[in-house]
């Protein structure tokens, strides 16, 4: 390019800068109105913002909008912008992350603001000033990208910190509940719901160190598999007894789904056997945790396949393992027969007559088919068929414990 053309280009650029500065100056008195309009557009375009507290909408967001608009107009007028000028945006990004506002929602507001400022600048253009618009467009794109990049980085950093803090809080709440210590204050501070009753799980990989790499990996997979299960975030803890999981008791109604999720979570780490016990409230969690650990240990020791096991699944073995509450649990297996004396009498006679249905019928003075019908009803009520080996052992033990009181 010749020297004369370079000179003309420099003059043109200087003229464009002068006009841009004048356009920015003419927009300056409209900053408050533009900030209000930005808030209105934001609320209309982004539903999440409509539900924010009034002080956040009217003070924080409006104040940030005024600051952003003035900053761009100052930059258009030739003022230098440095990192300190981004501080307010970074602080707001961290706040929005802590408040749970989505990143896409947050960034959308900056593009809405850029559109609003551009409309205001174009509206102020007078004849002969159009040549300043390309320069203003470049300034706006660069400024918006600079702010958006900084805000995204600040938001993500704050979100990581929030997630780490919440994960620590979830772990502390789980530890306190399992230890029988107060957990309500920590839970309330971090917005962690505590259900009235729990399903307490224990998972342990056989032949592994209780706090080894495989267990920690299993814990992460279990968290991911159960996120949102039964309407909440699972409380989890890894200690010397394995992986503990506390879920709302509603999860007990979805045992099949729970079994699939947990077995799938443990597939890579190895076969996982899970013990499950119900806790009536926070005070019962330590006892339920001990029961769940014993149930898991019994299920593994007796060669049962990977899955979720409750007390009823290993009841006799649980009693024989020396569990302090085993006798009560086994005796309670026949509670569904209370108020049905003909069924209890049939069960006693069936066992006394060495499982012979005809001799049982003769002892009760009923038809053998009646014995069959009653035994089928007993199986439905207690969940175990007394005509099987396991059912015979359980029923005989339960009757003996009941007679002994």
Automatic annotation (TrEMBL):
Chain ranges of the RsbT co-antagonist protein RsbRD N-terminal domain: 33-169
Species: Actinomadura algeriensis
Domain of life: Bacteria
The PucR C-terminal helix-turn-helix domain, residue ranges: 343-400
UniProt protein name: PucR-like helix-turn-helix protein
Name of one Pfam family that matches: HTH_30
Cross-referenced InterPro entries: CdaR-like_regulators, PucR_C-HTH_dom, PucR_C-HTH_sf, RsbRD_N_dom
């Amino acid at each position: 390019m010749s020297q004369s053309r370079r000179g003309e280009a420099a003059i043109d650029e200087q003229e464009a800068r002068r006009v841009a500065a004048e356009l920015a100056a003419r927009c300056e008195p409209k900053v408050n109105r533009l900030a209000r309009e930005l808030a209105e557009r934001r609320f209309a375009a982004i539903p999440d913002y409509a539900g924010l507290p009034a002080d956040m909408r009217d003070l924080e967001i409006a104040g940030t909008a005024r600051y952003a608009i003035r900053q761009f107009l100052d930059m258009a007028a030739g003022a230098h912008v440095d990192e300190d000028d981004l501080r307010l945006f970074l602080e707001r990004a961290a706040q929005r992350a802590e408040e749970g506002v989505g990143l896409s929602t947050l960034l959308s507001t900056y593009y809405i603001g850029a559109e609003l400022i551009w409309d205001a600048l174009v509206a102020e253009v007078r004849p002969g000033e159009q040549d300043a618009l390309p320069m203003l467009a470049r300034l706006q794109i660069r400024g918006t990208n600079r702010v958006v990049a900084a805000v995204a980085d600040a938001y993500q950093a704050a979100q990581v910190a929030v997630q780490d803090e919440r994960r620590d809080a979830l772990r502390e709440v789980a530890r306190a509940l399992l230890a029988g210590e107060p957990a309500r204050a920590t839970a309330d501070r971090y917005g962690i719901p505590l259900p009235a009753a729990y399903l307490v799980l224990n998972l342990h990989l056989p032949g592994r160190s209780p706090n080894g790499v495989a267990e920690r990996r299993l814990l992460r997979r279990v968290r991911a598999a159960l996120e949102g299960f039964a309407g909440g975030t699972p409380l989890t803890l890894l200690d010397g007894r394995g992986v503990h999981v506390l879920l709302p008791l509603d999860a007990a109604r979805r045992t099949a789904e729970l079994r699939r999720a947990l077995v799938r979570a443990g597939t890579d780490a190895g076969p996982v056997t899970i013990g499950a016990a119900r806790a009536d409230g926070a005070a019962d969690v330590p006892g339920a945790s001990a029961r769940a650990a014993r149930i898991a240990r019994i299920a593994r020791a007796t060669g049962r396949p990977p899955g979720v096991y409750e007390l009823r699944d290993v009841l006799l073995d649980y009693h024989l393992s020396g569990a302090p509450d085993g006798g009560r649990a086994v005796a309670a297996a026949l509670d569904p027969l209370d108020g049905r004396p003909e069924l209890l009498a049939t069960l006693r006679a069936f066992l006394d007559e060495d499982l012979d249905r005809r001799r049982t019928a003769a002892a009760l003075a009923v038809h053998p088919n009646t014995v069959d019908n009653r035994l089928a009803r007993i199986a439905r009520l207690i969940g175990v068929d007394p005509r099987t080996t396991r059912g015979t052992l359980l029923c005989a033990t339960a009757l003996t414990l009941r007679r002994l009181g």
